[in-house]
Amino acid sequence: MRERAVQRHDRLLALVRQRGSARVTDLADQLGVSPVTVRRDVEALAGKGLLDRVHGAVSWPRERGVRGRAPVGEGRVLGLLAPSATYYFADVIRGAHEAAARAGARLVLRISDYRPEEDPARAEGLLAAGAEGLLVAPGWRGPGDPVEHGGWVAELPVPVVLLERNVPPDGPLAGLDRVCSDHGHGVLLALRHLTEQGHGVPLLVARADSPTAIAVREGYAAALRALDVPGPRPVIESVPAETDPAGFERAVRELHAAVASGEATAALVHNDVDAIQMVQRLAELGVRVPDDLALVAYDDEVAALADTPLTAVAPPKREVGRQAARLLVERLREWGDGGGGADTGAGGVAVGGDSHRTEDGGAVGEPAPRRHLALLPALRVRASCGAGAGGA
Questions:
Q1: Residues 276 and 326 reside in one and the same domain
Q2: N or C: which end of the chain has fewer CB within 10 A?
Q3: Does residue 308 share a domain with residue 298?
Q4: Do residues 346 and 158 touch, judged by C-beta distance below 8 A?
Q5: Does the residue 357 lie in any domain?
Q6: Residue 71 has pLDDT above 60, yes or no
Q7: Are residues 117 and 189 in the same domain?
Q8: Mind listing the pLDDT tens digit for each residue in 188-209?
């Protein structure tokens, strides 16, 4: 797939920022493009004030400093790195934009398209654009991605808040601020609703290609234990119908067999799109929702628009964005008040310098403790569980 200009620009900025300066010919070799292309890119970036040109080489602008900050006196600039600007993350981005605007800050967005290996370059592009702090939702997909593709986040030289991402408790990112939906609680809401209607062990139909999907899977067994329900049943592996029609059909057939045999009368399906398509396909196979199968979708992006409106777990996506942006603005204010400093990075630990103590033992200008903020999803009750309209 051909690299887009913005992606190449981000990689170029990352190289120059790391080195301080670089020759055009060296950059061409590193980027795998012609010197003519690099000169054209440099001209465009220099025109925006993101690079300085000097006789066949380029350098990082002195007025931006090592942190790539915007000039003093302008409104704060917050950077947001997201894996997508559609579906789930559209509301997260809206919430962050709203909170940034209320704080008088500007939000700058970069999209990784779920390619975690490109996240560092996207982040460098945000820093080059003047971002003073970053909201980061890495493009992780699998459970091993935080370890394989996450170390760079801890090395960022500005305050960072992780968005909708959990990390290993013993890893380098564990001490960062983060704001997430508590998907385990969301699964609990769904299973409790189904079991209280008299269903046995609900089945879980889920993907395995995103942090949300992984969290839903992890929450399934924990929720059944909390409800004292025997189980769990094996997860029915789902895949996107548009990219793997055969795999999606296998998941539908497995769910159909469980209902036809009387093994299951209820299911939780991640995500909305898969749930809607499964309901349509099950109807063709003679299984009706909610008459034969009570179904809850997870995400609540388009669940209400199904022919039979789907009960759905709704993570507080917009509020996640709002709370994360507010927290980042607070961290930047601490930096401005002396809580950070030139030797303070993403981990928020100041190196060197003196601090005065308050009466309660805290240090004047000392940053507040890091926060792991978990926001609870809601359950939107609709017709797909046979419970009628309403809310829970």
A1: no
A2: N
A3: yes
A4: yes
A5: no
A6: no
A7: no
A8: 999 999 999 999 999 999 999 9
Side chain identity at 124, as an amino acid letter?
A: E
Whose CA is closest to 89, among 80, 76, 79, 99? 80
| Together in a domain, 208 and 287 | yes
89 and 215 share a domain?
A: no
Helix or strand run (H / E) with residue 278:
helix 272-284
Residue 334 within any structural domain of the chain: yes
Q: Which pLDDT tens digit goes with each residue over 296-311?
A: 999 999 999 999 999 9
What is the CATH number for 115?
Answer: 3.40.50.2300
- Residues 357-385 have pLDDT tens digits of 444 444 555 668 999 999 999 999 999 99
**Do 311 and 187 share a structural domain?**
yes
Helix axes 119-128, 5-19, angle to 10 degrees: 80
Q: How many CB atoms lie within 10 A of CB 132?
A: 24
Residue 330 covered by a domain: yes
Q: Identify the domain containing residue 191 by its residue range.
A: 183-316+377-385
Cis peptide before 232 (omega within 30 of 0): yes
> Which residues have a Cβ under 8 Å from the Cβ of 254 and sit 6 or more positions away?
236
Do the beta carbons of residue 59 and residue 20 sit within 8 Å?
A: yes
Give yes or no for residue 356 having a pLDDT over 50.
Answer: no
Q: Supply the pLDDT for residue 355.
A: 41
- Using CA atoms, how far apart are residues 330 and 30, in angstroms rounded to an integer? 38
Among the candidates 39, 64, 89, a domain finishes at 64
Report the pLDDT averaged over residues 248-263.
Answer: 96
**Given this model, what pLDDT does residue 28 score?**
86
- Asked if residue 156 and residue 302 are part of one domain, the reply reads no
Q: Check residue 338 and give its pLDDT.
A: 54
Residue 96 has pLDDT above 50, yes or no: yes
Instruction: State whether 148 and 39 are in the same domain.
Output: no
CB 337 within 8 A of CB 159: no
> Does 261 fall in a domain?
yes
Q: Tell me which H or E stretch contains 46.
A: helix 35-47
Specify the number of domains making up the chain.
3
Measured CA distances, 238 to 217, 242, 255, 300, 354 (Å): 12, 12, 10, 18, 56
**What is the DSSP track for 72-133?**
TTSPPEEEEEES-SSTHHHHHHHHHHHHHHHTT-EEEEEE-TT-GGGHHHHHHHHHHTT-SE
Query: What is residue 66's predicted lDDT score, i.e. its pLDDT?
Result: 41
Taking residues 6-27, report their average pLDDT.
Answer: 80
